[in-house]
Write a structure and sequence with these properties.
By secondary structure, the protein is an alpha/beta fold. Helices cover 19% and strands 27% of the residues. The protein has four helices and 20 strands. The strands form four sheets. Strands 3-6-9-14-17-19-20 form a seven-stranded mixed sheet. It is globular.
Length: 199
């Protein structure tokens, strides 16, 4: 039986593992089959996607909304909090856990990479990888096309600007933008952002 605990034993966080290991193939095949079914659902068929997501992901909170085309490597290492909104064309490479709090908004074509490759060409050729968890707090917003790299933690209420590349931890309650992403300013209560005005 394929379980999250067994997968974790094959992919120890912070330690090198061989990505071509035969033990990982059943987990990838399981994920690929579920993704094929998930990504052929109609855009408005949220109820049809819900049971597929519950089977695919490690855990999923209430009232989550994941739009196709969604891609991931294993699925079992992804945890979505309540009311998560995952927009189109999001990719998550979940060799290590990728955990999201409640009320997280993920813009189109965002990418979350928990796995990394060694700089040594020989090790890369032999398919060695290393992975570190990505942890996202509550009420975080990722603008479209943002990229989050291994080992990053993003604090509650943070906003990641569109197209930013997050290479290090982001504190709670700030706006971070750029490549690499840097804190631009704090986000105040009632902050309307660049658009201003009232909803």
């Amino acid at each position: 039986m394929l379980t999250r605990a067994h997968l974790a034993s094959l992919l120890p966080s912070g330690q090198y593992y061989n990505a071509a290991g035969k033990e990982l193939q059943p987990y990838r095949s399981r994920c690929a089959g579920l993704l094929d079914r998930l990504n052929t659902t109609a855009l408005e068929d949220h109820e049809g996607r819900a049971p597929l997501l519950e089977e695919l992901l490690g855990s999923m909170g209430e009232q989550c909304w994941v739009m196709p085309r969604f891609l991931c490597e294993f699925g079992l290492n992804i945890a979505l909090g309540d009311r998560a909104l995952v927009n189109w064309d999001v990719t998550m490479l979940d060799s290590a856990p990728i955990t999201f709090g409640d009320d997280v908004l993920i813009g189109p074509r965002c990418q979350f990479y928990s796995s990394d490759h060694p700089f040594d060409a020989g090790m890369r050729r032999d398919m060695w990888e290393i992975a570190q968890p990505i942890t996202v707090g509550n009420s975080v917003w990722f603008g479209g096309g943002a990229i989050v790299l291994p080992g990053v933690t993003v604090g509650d209420g943070a906003i990641i600007g569109a197209g930013s590349v997050v290479t290090r931890d982001v504190p709670a309650g700030v706006l971070a933008v750029g490549n690499p992403a840097r804190v631009l300013r704090e986000v105040e209560d009632g902050d309307r952002g660049a658009g201003g005005g009232r909803p």
